[in-house]
Amino acid sequence: MPMISFAPRRWSTALFALLAFNAVPAAAQSVMAVCTDPKGRGFETTPAKGWVFNRLKDAVITFSRDRAGRPDILIRDRSRTVSLARDGAKLTVTHQARNFNYFIITAVYQQAQVDTFQVTFLPNGKGQLVWTSVRSHLPPKDETRATFLVADCEQ
Which UniProt keywords apply (predicted)? Predict the structure, then answer.
């Protein structure tokens, strides 16, 4: 009989999703995807850095919907967990498949920032997040940049 083994990373991802899911009010009912370790490139004009490598090391991004269908995105890194909905972002599901094999969520913030999160799952179950972010003159550093990140996902 073959041994079944689980990679430690999958256990930690599943555990975080469970804890994050339970930390949200009871209205949150379904996890659509859990994505890990987003990385990519960005272009920063203020401060003038040009092209830079971006990575949220060991970050976990959990996409969920409550019973009313309202989306939320929890982003956990080494120091904190942020709920985009609770932080005031206006989240909108702009495209989706009925079984959530793909979806796109836009996040519009009160300050000059817009993010798009596109998650696609292939028939083999592997998922990919494509996250774009545009920020214009955000305080306190008057930061202006555009970022493109990708991450692996699980349903």
Answer: Signal
In a domain, 1, yes or no: no
Cα–Cα distance between 123 and 88 in angstroms, integer?
A: 34
Look at the block and give the residue holding tokens 């609770």. 86
Which residues span the domain enclosing 96? 8-154
Alpha-carbon distance of 34 to 45, in angstroms, equals: 31
pTM value surpassing 0.85: no
- What is the spatial distance between Cα 102 and Cα 74, in angstroms, rounded to a whole number? 18
Q: 27-43, pLDDT tens digit by residue? A: 546 999 999 999 999 99
